[in-house]
Design brief:
CATH superfamily of the domain at 18-142: Gcn5-related N-acetyltransferase (GNAT)
Bound molecules: coenzyme A
CATH topology of the domain at 18-142: Aminopeptidase
Oligomer: single chain
Helix content: 25-40%
Order of helices and strands: EEHHHEEEHEHEEE
Shape: globular
Radius of gyration: 16 Å
Largest sheet: 9 strands, mixed
CATH architecture of the domain at 18-142: 3-Layer(aba) Sandwich
Strand content: 25-35%
Strand order of the largest sheet: 7-8-6-5-4-3-2-1-9
Number of strands: 9
Structural class: alpha+beta
């Protein structure tokens, strides 16, 4: 069983304890959030094996993607400054991951995935709000998100978080957000701890 809490020793340099949060979804379910650590590679590998093809397609644009150990390490070994990722847990199991990666200059690309049974309760929106908080603290000035144009759920999340300026290139849509600007619609999840 995966536990949401990390031991207080042996954490990577720069582990940002202040991003260990508990949030209450709008349907009343409680979610524990913490930064991803290298030990999460095992969990991530298992989640990838079990994920449905539609989820993989919309997250990685490839329904049959397999992550080798190098890519798994890349996704779980973070500097928590330019590369930052959060995992969300409920009842001891992973339910979502959100991250940002450098995209040139002071820009970062954001991505998120939420397990199907945890969707439409505001979780991705809440995770994006936390990523924004972390990015602003780290001097990042702009977020971009790349997604497939039929992905109306992520479009809704991005609009809720104040992204705009949609462009489509080679079948991939892109929306951006200047950080530090308030979203037009309030986020649904909220901090309780
Ligand atoms: C996209 C994704 C992350 C959204 O996660 P989530 O936790 O359900 O997001 P939220 O609950 O914060 O917001 C989703 C919004 O889209 C709405 N929505 C869901 N499905 C929709 C659809 N087919 N069409 C339009 N809106 C939709 C929800 O009602 C909600 O809006 P609301 O808050 O106004 O009710 C999730 O669907 C997912 O993991 N998809 C697969 C991976 C992926 O697409 N990642 C994005 C690439 S970066």
């Amino acid at each position: 069983m995966i536990t949401p809490l990390q031991p207080r020793t042996g954490l990577p340099d720069g582990y940002p304890f202040d991003y260990e949060r508990e949030i209450l979804l709008r349907d009343g379910r409680v979610i524990h959030i913490r930064p991803i650590v290298p030990g999460d590679a095992v969990l991530l590998a298992r989640e990838m094996e079990e994920a449905d093809t539609d989820t993989l397609y919309h997250r990685f644009f490839n329904p049959a993607i397999k992550l080798d150990s190098k890519r798994l390490r890349h996704l779980t070994e973070l500097d928590y400054r330019r590369r930052f990722a959060l995992a969300a847990f409920a009842r001891g199991s992973g339910v979502a991951i959100a991250r940002f990666e450098p995209a040139g200059g002071h820009r970062a690309e954001v991505a998120v995935v939420v397990k199907p049974e945890w969707r439409s309760a505001g979780l991705a929106t809440a995770l994006f709000a936390l990523l924004e908080e972390a990015a602003i603290e780290r001097g990042i000035e702009e977020f971009e998100a790349l997604y497939l144009p039929d992905n109306h759920a992520i479009e809704r999340v991005l609009h809720k978080r104040g992204f705009g300026d949609v462009t489509i290139d080679a079948g991939v849509a892109r929306m951006t957000k200047r950080l530090g600007e308030r979203p037009p619609v309030g986020m649904h999840g909220h901090d309780v701890g």
